[in-house]
Design a protein that fits this description.
globular; 2 strands; 2 domains
Length: 229
Protein backbone atom coordinates (compact mmCIF):
# COMPACT_ATOMS: atom_id res chain seq x y z
CA UNK A 1 0.00 0.00 0.00
CA UNK A 2 1.22 3.47 -0.78
CA UNK A 3 2.90 4.99 2.25
CA UNK A 4 1.06 8.30 2.48
CA UNK A 5 -2.34 6.72 1.94
CA UNK A 6 -1.54 4.16 4.62
CA UNK A 7 -0.73 6.96 7.06
CA UNK A 8 -4.02 8.69 6.28
CA UNK A 9 -5.97 5.46 6.75
CA UNK A 10 -4.37 4.83 10.13
CA UNK A 11 -5.10 8.40 11.22
CA UNK A 12 -8.75 8.13 10.26
CA UNK A 13 -9.05 4.72 11.83
CA UNK A 14 -7.77 6.03 15.16
CA UNK A 15 -10.54 8.47 15.81
CA UNK A 16 -9.72 10.80 12.94
CA UNK A 17 -7.78 13.22 15.13
CA UNK A 18 -5.64 14.62 12.34
CA UNK A 19 -7.03 13.16 9.09
CA UNK A 20 -7.64 16.39 7.20
CA UNK A 21 -4.16 17.65 7.98
CA UNK A 22 -2.50 14.45 6.80
CA UNK A 23 -4.55 14.16 3.63
CA UNK A 24 -4.14 17.86 2.83
CA UNK A 25 -0.37 17.39 3.07
CA UNK A 26 -0.56 14.40 0.73
CA UNK A 27 -2.60 16.37 -1.81
CA UNK A 28 -0.46 19.51 -1.58
CA UNK A 29 1.80 18.51 -4.41
CA UNK A 30 2.27 19.35 -8.07
CA UNK A 31 2.55 15.64 -8.83
CA UNK A 32 -0.93 15.04 -10.27
CA UNK A 33 -0.35 11.31 -10.64
CA UNK A 34 0.52 11.02 -6.96
CA UNK A 35 -2.53 13.09 -5.97
CA UNK A 36 -4.70 10.82 -8.11
CA UNK A 37 -3.32 7.72 -6.41
CA UNK A 38 -3.95 9.16 -2.95
CA UNK A 39 -7.52 10.10 -3.83
CA UNK A 40 -8.12 6.67 -5.32
CA UNK A 41 -7.48 5.03 -1.93
CA UNK A 42 -9.80 7.30 0.06
CA UNK A 43 -12.99 5.42 -0.74
CA UNK A 44 -12.00 2.75 1.77
CA UNK A 45 -12.24 5.35 4.52
CA UNK A 46 -16.00 5.71 4.19
CA UNK A 47 -18.00 8.81 5.02
CA UNK A 48 -15.03 10.76 6.41
CA UNK A 49 -13.52 11.02 2.96
CA UNK A 50 -16.64 12.35 1.18
CA UNK A 51 -15.92 16.12 1.48
CA UNK A 52 -12.40 15.73 0.06
CA UNK A 53 -13.60 13.45 -2.75
CA UNK A 54 -16.46 15.75 -3.71
CA UNK A 55 -14.05 18.68 -3.84
CA UNK A 56 -11.68 16.61 -6.00
CA UNK A 57 -14.42 16.13 -8.61
CA UNK A 58 -13.71 19.77 -9.56
CA UNK A 59 -9.97 19.22 -10.12
CA UNK A 60 -8.47 20.39 -13.41
CA UNK A 61 -6.79 17.05 -14.06
CA UNK A 62 -9.14 14.40 -15.47
CA UNK A 63 -7.26 11.57 -13.75
CA UNK A 64 -7.94 13.19 -10.37
CA UNK A 65 -11.64 13.62 -11.16
CA UNK A 66 -11.76 9.99 -12.28
CA UNK A 67 -10.12 8.81 -9.06
CA UNK A 68 -12.54 10.85 -6.98
CA UNK A 69 -15.57 9.43 -8.78
CA UNK A 70 -14.29 5.87 -8.45
CA UNK A 71 -13.59 6.38 -4.75
CA UNK A 72 -17.09 7.76 -4.15
CA UNK A 73 -18.38 4.50 -5.58
CA UNK A 74 -16.25 2.64 -3.05
CA UNK A 75 -17.68 4.86 -0.30
CA UNK A 76 -21.16 3.61 -1.19
CA UNK A 77 -20.07 -0.02 -0.90
CA UNK A 78 -18.38 0.59 2.44
CA UNK A 79 -21.27 2.60 3.87
CA UNK A 80 -23.82 -0.03 2.84
CA UNK A 81 -21.70 -2.68 4.55
CA UNK A 82 -22.02 -0.76 7.83
CA UNK A 83 -25.74 -0.05 7.22
CA UNK A 84 -25.15 3.68 7.52
CA UNK A 85 -27.00 6.41 5.63
CA UNK A 86 -25.63 6.95 2.14
CA UNK A 87 -24.25 10.49 1.67
CA UNK A 88 -26.55 12.68 -0.42
CA UNK A 89 -23.69 15.13 -0.92
CA UNK A 90 -21.84 12.46 -2.89
CA UNK A 91 -24.88 11.55 -4.97
CA UNK A 92 -25.53 15.14 -6.03
CA UNK A 93 -21.89 15.72 -6.89
CA UNK A 94 -21.74 12.56 -9.01
CA UNK A 95 -24.89 13.55 -10.88
CA UNK A 96 -23.18 16.80 -11.89
CA UNK A 97 -20.12 14.81 -12.92
CA UNK A 98 -22.20 12.95 -15.52
CA UNK A 99 -21.68 16.08 -17.64
CA UNK A 100 -17.87 16.06 -17.27
CA UNK A 101 -15.91 16.83 -20.44
CA UNK A 102 -13.87 13.63 -20.08
CA UNK A 103 -15.62 10.43 -21.19
CA UNK A 104 -13.79 8.22 -18.67
CA UNK A 105 -14.92 10.49 -15.84
CA UNK A 106 -18.52 10.35 -17.08
CA UNK A 107 -18.26 6.59 -17.42
CA UNK A 108 -17.00 6.20 -13.86
CA UNK A 109 -19.63 8.57 -12.48
CA UNK A 110 -22.37 6.34 -13.92
CA UNK A 111 -20.82 3.29 -12.31
CA UNK A 112 -20.28 5.06 -8.98
CA UNK A 113 -23.93 6.16 -8.86
CA UNK A 114 -25.02 2.60 -9.57
CA UNK A 115 -23.33 1.56 -6.33
CA UNK A 116 -25.74 3.85 -4.45
CA UNK A 117 -28.61 2.03 -6.11
CA UNK A 118 -32.13 3.08 -5.23
CA UNK A 119 -30.80 5.68 -2.77
CA UNK A 120 -29.72 7.60 -5.90
CA UNK A 121 -32.97 7.31 -7.85
CA UNK A 122 -32.83 11.02 -8.65
CA UNK A 123 -29.88 10.22 -10.92
CA UNK A 124 -32.05 8.16 -13.31
CA UNK A 125 -33.03 11.07 -15.63
CA UNK A 126 -29.40 12.17 -16.08
CA UNK A 127 -28.13 8.62 -16.56
CA UNK A 128 -30.89 8.09 -19.12
CA UNK A 129 -29.45 11.06 -21.04
CA UNK A 130 -26.12 9.22 -21.07
CA UNK A 131 -27.70 6.73 -23.48
CA UNK A 132 -27.14 9.41 -26.11
CA UNK A 133 -23.56 10.20 -25.09
CA UNK A 134 -21.06 10.63 -27.91
CA UNK A 135 -18.80 7.91 -26.45
CA UNK A 136 -20.06 4.35 -26.89
CA UNK A 137 -18.64 3.18 -23.56
CA UNK A 138 -20.68 5.78 -21.65
CA UNK A 139 -23.83 4.67 -23.47
CA UNK A 140 -22.92 1.07 -22.67
CA UNK A 141 -22.40 1.60 -18.93
CA UNK A 142 -25.64 3.60 -18.71
CA UNK A 143 -27.61 0.82 -20.36
CA UNK A 144 -25.91 -1.78 -18.20
CA UNK A 145 -26.49 -0.13 -14.84
CA UNK A 146 -29.85 1.62 -15.09
CA UNK A 147 -31.34 -1.60 -13.69
CA UNK A 148 -29.47 -1.00 -10.44
CA UNK A 149 -31.84 1.85 -9.60
CA UNK A 150 -34.80 -0.49 -9.39
CA UNK A 151 -38.38 0.45 -10.35
CA UNK A 152 -37.49 4.15 -10.70
CA UNK A 153 -35.55 3.21 -13.85
CA UNK A 154 -38.73 1.97 -15.58
CA UNK A 155 -39.00 5.55 -16.86
CA UNK A 156 -35.86 4.89 -18.93
CA UNK A 157 -37.49 2.15 -21.01
CA UNK A 158 -38.44 4.45 -23.93
CA UNK A 159 -34.84 5.71 -24.18
CA UNK A 160 -33.53 2.15 -23.90
CA UNK A 161 -35.79 1.13 -26.78
CA UNK A 162 -34.22 3.89 -28.85
CA UNK A 163 -30.83 2.52 -27.84
CA UNK A 164 -31.76 -0.74 -29.56
CA UNK A 165 -30.87 1.16 -32.74
CA UNK A 166 -27.45 2.22 -31.43
CA UNK A 167 -24.58 1.89 -33.89
CA UNK A 168 -22.63 -0.23 -31.39
CA UNK A 169 -23.75 -3.82 -30.88
CA UNK A 170 -22.52 -3.83 -27.29
CA UNK A 171 -24.82 -0.95 -26.42
CA UNK A 172 -27.75 -2.60 -28.21
CA UNK A 173 -27.15 -5.82 -26.27
CA UNK A 174 -27.14 -4.09 -22.88
CA UNK A 175 -30.21 -2.05 -23.79
CA UNK A 176 -32.14 -5.20 -24.68
CA UNK A 177 -31.13 -6.86 -21.39
CA UNK A 178 -32.08 -3.76 -19.41
CA UNK A 179 -35.50 -3.52 -21.05
CA UNK A 180 -36.22 -7.15 -20.22
CA UNK A 181 -35.39 -6.64 -16.55
CA UNK A 182 -37.13 -3.30 -16.19
CA UNK A 183 -40.31 -4.56 -17.82
CA UNK A 184 -40.46 -7.12 -15.01
CA UNK A 185 -40.42 -4.27 -12.51
CA UNK A 186 -43.57 -2.67 -13.83
CA UNK A 187 -46.34 -2.98 -11.21
CA UNK A 188 -48.80 -5.67 -12.23
CA UNK A 189 -52.47 -4.82 -12.42
CA UNK A 190 -54.68 -7.45 -10.80
CA UNK A 191 -58.16 -8.49 -11.87
CA UNK A 192 -59.59 -6.38 -9.02
CA UNK A 193 -58.04 -3.24 -10.47
CA UNK A 194 -55.25 -2.98 -7.90
CA UNK A 195 -51.52 -2.78 -8.28
CA UNK A 196 -49.58 -4.90 -5.81
CA UNK A 197 -52.39 -4.55 -3.32
CA UNK A 198 -52.99 -0.83 -3.91
CA UNK A 199 -55.82 0.76 -5.84
CA UNK A 200 -54.80 2.10 -9.22
CA UNK A 201 -56.60 3.41 -12.25
CA UNK A 202 -53.76 3.09 -14.70
CA UNK A 203 -51.73 0.14 -13.48
CA UNK A 204 -48.62 2.29 -13.00
CA UNK A 205 -48.56 2.80 -9.22
CA UNK A 206 -47.65 0.54 -6.32
CA UNK A 207 -44.49 -1.17 -5.20
CA UNK A 208 -42.07 -2.67 -7.65
CA UNK A 209 -39.59 -5.46 -7.19
CA UNK A 210 -35.94 -5.15 -6.32
CA UNK A 211 -33.59 -5.82 -9.19
CA UNK A 212 -30.50 -7.95 -8.83
CA UNK A 213 -27.25 -6.02 -8.96
CA UNK A 214 -24.41 -6.60 -11.35
CA UNK A 215 -21.28 -7.63 -9.53
CA UNK A 216 -17.76 -6.43 -10.17
CA UNK A 217 -16.42 -2.92 -10.54
CA UNK A 218 -16.55 -1.29 -13.94
CA UNK A 219 -13.86 1.29 -14.60
CA UNK A 220 -12.47 2.96 -17.73
CA UNK A 221 -10.40 1.20 -20.36
CA UNK A 222 -7.19 3.02 -19.60
CA UNK A 223 -7.24 1.25 -16.24
CA UNK A 224 -7.88 -2.06 -18.04
CA UNK A 225 -10.54 -3.37 -15.71
CA UNK A 226 -13.29 -3.70 -18.32
CA UNK A 227 -12.73 -5.27 -21.77
CA UNK A 228 -13.96 -2.91 -24.44
CA UNK A 229 -12.59 -4.35 -27.58
Amino acid sequence: MRLYSAVAIVALGEGGKRPLTLIAQALDTEDDDFRSEVIHTLGDLGLKSVPILVDSLRAKKASIRWSAAASLGSVADNVKATKSVLPRQAILALIKTLRDEDEDVRYTAVYALSRYGQAANEAVPEITKCLKDGEWSVRWIAARHLRDFGPAAVSAIPALKEALQDEDERVRSEAAAAIKLLEQMRPKKSEEGTVNGRSSSNGRSGNGVIVNRCGGQMIPRRFRAVPRG
